[in-house]
Amino acid sequence: MSEVVTTAPATSAPGAERVLWTSTIAFTACFAVWTIFSIIGLGVKDELGLSETQFGLLVGTPILTGSLARVLLGIWADQIGGRRVFAAVMVFAAIATFLTSYADSYETLLLAALGVGLAGGTFSIGVTYVSKFFPPQKQGTVLGIFGAGNVGAAVTKFIAPFVMVAAGWQAVAQVWAAALLAMAVLFLLFTKEDPEQVARQREGRKAAAMGAQLAVLKNIQVWRFALYYFFVFGAFVALALWLPRYLMGVYGLDVETAGMLAAFYSVPASLFRIYGGRLSDRYGARSVLYVTFGISVLTTFMLAYPPTTYIVEGVRGRITFHTEMGLVPFLVTIFVLGLFMSFGKAAVFKHIPVYYPNHVGAVGGLVGMVGGLGGFFLPLAFGALLDLTGVWTSAFALLFVLVLVALVWMHFAIRYMEAVAARRGTAAAVPELPEMQGMGEPGFVAPPRKAGPIGDWRPEEPAFWQATGRPIARRNLWISTYCLLLSFAVWMVWSVVVARLPAIGFAFSTDQLFWLAALPGLSGATLRIFYAFLVPIFGGRLWTTLSTASLLIPAFGIGYAVQDPQTPYLIFLVLALLCGFGGGNFASSMANISYFFPKSEKGNALAINAGLGNLGVSLMQFLVPVVVTMSLFGALGGQAQTAADGTQLWMQNAGFVWVPLIGIGTLAAWFGMNDILSAKSSFADQATIFGRAHTWLMCWLYTGTFGTFIGMSAGFPLLAKLVFPEVDALKYAFVGPLLGALSRAGAGWISDRLGGARVTFWVFVVQIIAIVGMIYFLDQASFAGFFAMILLLFFVSGVGNASTFQMVPGIMRRAVDLAEPGLSDEQRRLQAEREGAAVIGFTSAIAAYGAFYIPKAYGSSIDLTGTADAALWGFLVFYVSCAALTWFAYSGPRGILHRSEGARLRPANPLPA
Q1: pLDDT, tens digit, 9 for 90 and up, residues 542-588
Q2: By percentage, how much of the chain surpasses pLDDT 90?
Q3: How far is CA 132 from CA 14, 366, 514, in A?
Q4: Is the Cβ–Cβ distance between 515 and 577 less than 8 Å?
Q5: Are 35 and 152 in contact (CB under 8 A)?
Q6: What is the rounded CA–CA span in Å between residue 399 and residue 396?
Q7: Would you state the torsion angle of the CA atoms of residues 45, 47, 49, 50, taken in this order, to the nearest 10 degrees?
Q8: How large is the average pLDDT for residues 712-731?
């Protein structure tokens, strides 16, 4: 008999809400029974003396049954009706759970566990049954709510340990069996047959044969899709089963405490599945899965790192230090992992009822089966790995490899699919997930994704810019600015931290402290060289997300390192270098934003992005001295350190305070930013800038402006503390970077109006005056005069930062026009935009070395001569060379920008003589 194609309802069927919530409660009860061996297995293990591998097999056996049964149960739900099958399975699982209490050997327990596992098969029944009551546009949220029944694992972990301690593990099985049987009765009372089953009975139609239901599983994409669920659901179940044992073995907890803390993971990994469904409905499942896999890679890596003792052969002997994750950081990390896995579970099941409305049972059953098998094989693998290696964290090492493979495979599949679609001119029709390419029943057309790369981008066309381009560009600008602000804060955090280290017991020399202040500048500048070329390769959205998330590494590292005065200097050197991640982000951020705006607004947009991003330095220098004086995170943040004067400081807050802000920025970048397809190019395409003389000239000039800003930001706090010890300079350190950041953000329009080269020339003239003033007031030992000259230097450097970047688009357009006369005007424009973005990123990389050489020059000058005068005289000579270069190459009578910038000042319609 041929299959009759049905369609999902346009609106929710009558009684849909009651069916949804009753089914969710029933699934919660089933899940509580399905994971019962994670608790009673502990009692059985002690009673029978089981090995870790035997324990893993016992805990995983119900998961195996429930997983393998899901395909068959899902098909039966399609054929017979989900309501009947759901109730019947609950009754059979309740009987098997009750009989478990009478098992008296390992073999009979394994046999009973097979029957208990049927409770887990209700997932595919519920997905089939519930989805038939709701339209496609609501099914992400609806199935997220139903899937939140995973919280049944937490119910078991909360309550079962107390019942087991009071009455034995057999009592747990009997109570859980009775509760599941009662739930089956209530389910039948409060639900009704699904609309499709009712229609089929009314019309006398037969359900599709099992062979027809299974035929769709020939599609290879269905199996690929199921592999994602193997991690987001299978690993969730595995950890829900394994965590009580892990917490008892690693942290020495009792069974009640271990069960309750394991629920700290299970609850978010279940309840937030509801919100994951809403996110999938709103932003698309692909975006949610990207974030899920990315965060999971980071958290599993942190969890996989075993307790380690390092021995470093130093110059003055061996340096020994130890690192391991404490209980509180472990719980926080596992909470984050569970949260994002819950989002991923909802994202995976978002599409099944949409793409396979007539095969929800078969497809949902297969995907659920593969995920459930993860819940069987992974605990078994955890136990085997522990027996083989003796390392508890080996379980998370396995999960790290698994999710990393999933992320890399998905990313390259997506990129390949997008490239093929772009070549065919069908980029707009690319579905949410590459796994959906070619999926679906006959005649089904995949819906286009809601967010993704922008193929049509014409900012120079006024109509397009006003109607479409400007809102998109501004959204990307503000998200980029926020992320860049955090990057600068993390990059320059050592400028404040190093000044406090001696007071809390770190016996570092003056030269060592200056090295710590200078190294972030060195690594940040070096990373900028590479970051400058990565946006056209990876896309601005992905790279901004990854580069912002990378700031978590130094933020966490600083928070842990400063708590122990015995932390070796080598660790601080490494952390100082890692802070360079923040410095590198500037190059990619500026290159990315330059693609979004037309030439007439590019200078102002770059000034806002960079200027408000630079504000991160001032924000950090204001915020960190405040937060280190309070217990901002309570016990979670660690103990206070007692300073030399008896005051209590929480120096770890200098790193930890940025962690939640970085998390917000990472999510905002992924969900709110865009890629411009026309900006895509290889490194070879961008490498032509190295053959342009103007690239190197602009590197010199931008070092004079931005190198001054970032170098003075890094060096001034420590310099002022050494030269003017009677003044608490840290109270005023934030003022200079604040002034420089605001002047940059507000001065872009001046360069757009008067010309960047003209403004840049006068900036260097004022910088020369400011340096002369600094030398004078330093010799006079006048902090007020010295600080005034510092503020003047910060202000004009901010103006110069905006004006030098404003020069780049015009310079590169002239250079490309002269070098490529055979290209069309549009081709030369695109080439000039690509090269201009690369030059902006590369010059920012070279200029960022100012964050290294200025603090280091101060330190060397003080060590060799006893004063900072020698360093300041060197800066003076450099500024004179910058002013001369600007005049002769760009703004003077023979400069290439002299004529175009002169035209800006002449009226459009000059009066007659």
Answers
A1: 888 888 888 888 888 888 888 877 777 888 888 888 888 887 777 77
A2: 3
A3: 11, 18, 67
A4: no
A5: yes
A6: 5
A7: -30
A8: 71
